[in-house]
């Protein structure tokens, strides 16, 4: 213990003179902590000082972590606000789109009455009942199997 106490005292004197390295300060703090209650009064004061510094570092680290979280929250909030602004600008400046439209003779018609009338007319054209035969199936059965080429002629397989 005496040899260890001398080494601790030597490191403590060097620390008080401001000549220790960071590694020596960590070693001194570890030695002071490991010795326990069997230190002389002057080295106990040194141990108390190191405990105070360690507590201050812990508080500073916690403070930095807290501020890092606050900065992150601020950036996330700013990004969300920017995204909301972009969405609002796009929605508010885009022209309204009609709910219903039809293309009649190459023109887009958005008048709901005209669209409804044309839809009913188209449904009546394709509607069938139990007594009506659907001729498209018959046409499909009698059509040749070879696909048409680009010029409309039948291709040979």
Brief sketch in words of this structure:
With 157 residues, the chain is mostly helical. Helix content is 67%, strand content 4%.
3D structure, described in words:
- The protein has 157 residues and is mainly α.
- 67% of the residues lie in helices and 4% in strands.
- Strands 1-2 form a two-stranded antiparallel ribbon.
- The mean pLDDT is 75.
Question: Which labels suit this protein?
Answer:
single chain; 157 residues; mainly alpha; two-stranded antiparallel sheet; 5 helices; 67% helix; rod-shaped
Tell me about the largest β-sheet.
2 strands, antiparallel
Report the C-alpha radius of gyration, rounded: 44 Å
Count up the helices. Answer: 5
| Low-pLDDT windows of residues | none
Oligomer status? single chain
Portion of residues in beta strands equals: under 5%
Distance between the termini: 103 Å
Structural class: mainly alpha
Estimate the mean pLDDT confidence: 75
Question: How helix-rich are the residues, as a percent range?
Answer: 55-70%
Number of strand elements: 2
């Amino acid at each position: 213990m005496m040899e260890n106490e001398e080494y601790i005292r030597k490191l403590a004197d060097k620390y008080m003179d401001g000549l220790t390295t960071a590694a020596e300060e960590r070693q001194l703090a570890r030695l002071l902590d490991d010795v326990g209650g069997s230190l002389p009064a002057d080295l106990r004061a040194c141990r108390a000082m190191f405990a105070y510094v360690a507590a201050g570092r812990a508080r500073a680290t916690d403070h930095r972590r807290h501020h890092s979280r606050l900065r992150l929250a601020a950036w996330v909030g700013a990004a969300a606000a920017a995204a909301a602004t972009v969405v609002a600008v796009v929605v508010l400046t885009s022209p309204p789109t009609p709910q219903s439209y039809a293309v009649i003779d190459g023109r887009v018609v958005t008048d709901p009455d005209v669209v409804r009338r044309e839809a009913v007319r188209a449904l009546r054209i394709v509607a069938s009942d139990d007594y009506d035969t659907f001729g498209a199936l018959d046409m499909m059965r009698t059509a040749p199997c070879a696909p048409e080429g680009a010029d409309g002629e039948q291709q040979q397989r």
